[in-house]
Amino acid sequence: MAIWVIKYGQREGPYEERDVRELVYEGTYADGDPAIRDGETEWTTLGQMLGRVPPAAPGAEPMPGSPAAAAPPRPMEPPPIPGGGPNMAPPLPPRIPRHRPAPVAVVDFDMPFGSMVVFLVKWALAAIPAMFIVGAIATVFWLGFLTLISVVLRH
């Protein structure tokens, strides 16, 4: 069944349970975030829904302002826009899971001049040890190559 989660006052989903577990593991959602499954009428926390946290004591009242304190919205409806009608919400963009690489194209970046100078100075300083390492490798290579040439030319 699909799972809906409320984060920062916005309902997000629907997600499959394995996807929600992955998002909790990654830190996108927490055990205390309100959640509901399709077909259910009572909101609970993700921790309780996924069996990570024991259920609340019977008869415990929901915290004021939590989704359980208010009448829960029906599953599969888009979240309402403040000041708008219930069907005026734009569709949420599809969520790209982190385990799939997404294509990225950097078109431009804006960096203050002072930060750019500091960056280039650090880059130049970091290149000094790299030049020593590359020089040592090149020296070993050329010594071996010249030794091989001198051995071949003597015979």
The average pLDDT is 77
Give the number of DSSP strands.
4
Q: What is the strand content?
A: 5-15%
* Terminal-residue CA separation: 80 Å
The rounded Rg comes to 29 Å
Based on the structure, what is the oligomeric state of the protein chains?
Answer: single chain
Secondary-structure content class: alpha+beta
Present the secondary structure layout.
Blueprint: E1 3-7, E2 10-15, H1 17-26, E3 34-37, E4 44-45, H2 46-49, H3 113-154
Description of the molecule:
The protein is of the alpha+beta class and 155 residues long. The chain is 36% helix and 11% strand. It is built from three helices and four strands, in the order ββαββαα. The protein has a four-stranded antiparallel β-sheet. A hairpin with a 6-residue loop joins strand 3 and strand 4. It starts with a strand and ends with a helix. About 11% of the residues have low confidence.
